[in-house]
C-alpha cells in the first residue's frame, strides 16, 4: 500500500471499497489522539485502584486481579493508539481543532446546547428525583421530559403526542421496576 502511515489504518476499508478522504483521515487521527490520552489516564486509574483492593491468600484470588489485567490491556491499547495517532498527524490536527474559532463554534452549536440540557436533566433525575420520590414516579417524569424535549413522540391517529409520551414513560418505568423486583430481586428506591 502506498502513502503515509495513516493509510495502513484504512487499508481494510479501502480494500472493501470504502474510501476516506485525506481530511477525514486526519480528523480521525486527532480524535484518536484525544481518545488515546483519555484511555491511558483511565487505565492508569483502574490499575492504581485495583492494586489498592483487598486480597486473601494471594493477589490472584483477590478482587483486584481481573481489573488489573483489564487496566493493563487498556493501557497497552491506549499507547498503541497514541503512537498511531501521532504518526498520522493527529497532533497538528488536534491543535487546529482546538483553535479559538473551532472552540467558539462548538460552544455556540445547537448540538452542544442540546447535550448540556440532556445532561442537566439526567443530573436532576439522579440527584434530585431518585431517592426523594418513588422510582416509578421519578423515572416516569424523567422519561416524559426527555420525550418532550427531544420531540420523540409523533401525534398518532388516536392519541396526542404528549399523552403517548406519558403512556410510554409510565409503562417503561413500571415494567423496569417490577422486572428488577420480581426477576432479579433488586428493590429500586
Descriptive notes:
- There is one protein chain.
- 72% of the residues lie in helices and 0% in strands.
- The longest helix has 30 residues, at 22-51.
- Helix 3 (22-51) packs across helix 5 (90-97).
- It has helices spanning 6-9, 11-15, 22-51, 65-87, 90-97, 100-107, 110-129, 135-150, 161-182.
- It is flat, with a radius of gyration of 24 Å.
- Residues 5-15 have low confidence and may be disordered.
- It is built from 9 helices and no strands.
- It has 189 residues and is an all-alpha fold.
For the record, give the distance between the C-alpha atoms at the N and C termini, rounded to a whole number. 58 Å
Number of strands: 0
Give the ordered list of helices and strands: HHHHHHHHH
Q: Any idea what the shape is? A: flat
Average pLDDT: 84
Q: Which structural class is indicated by helix and strand composition?
A: mainly alpha
Number of helices: 9
Strand content: under 5%
The main β sheet shows up as: none
Report the helical percentage.
over 70%
Structural Rg: 24 Å
Low-confidence stretches: 5-15
Brief characterization of the structure:
By secondary structure, this protein is mostly helical. It has nine helices and no strands.
What are the key terms here?
mainly alpha; 189 residues; single chain; 9 helices
SSE topology:
Elements: H1 6-9, H2 11-15, H3 22-51, H4 65-87, H5 90-97, H6 100-107, H7 110-129, H8 135-150, H9 161-182
Helix pairs in contact: 3-4, 3-5, 7-8, 8-9
